[in-house]
Amino acid sequence: MPNSGSPIAIYTTGEELAHPPPAIVEGPGRRHYANAKLANILWTYALHKRLSEKVPDRGITVNSFDPGLMPGTGLAREASLLMRYARDKVMPKITPVPRVVPTNNIYRPEESGASLAC
């Protein structure tokens, strides 16, 4: 696991990422989440490349956005009852504390939304 706490995305080809084999489809939801995030990043790169080749004079920029870890969004719905409670009810209230220990990429949903809107 990377230091984000999420499992590492399984990737061999873009086709497999878009249409995963049954062994991955039947796997844990957090793996699907990691794979979906990777697919979004790869799509951002591919779209930039295609637009740069098709309309180079337009100066089109392609962006993606990392909202960070957002406790309280229901992402931990597969976890145990205690872990879900901690993530959905406790962590949103103490978000500043874990920002200094494992990572500073932890935000409440309203903070992430405000960053995206800027």
TrEMBL record:
InterPro entries to which the protein is assigned, alphabetical: NAD(P)-bd_dom_sf
Gene3D superfamilies named in the record: NAD(P)-binding Rossmann-like Domain
SUPFAM superfamilies: NAD(P)-binding Rossmann-fold domains
Designated name of the protein: Uncharacterized protein
Organism: Xylaria bambusicola
Lineage, top ranks: Eukaryota, Fungi, Dikarya, Ascomycota, Pezizomycotina
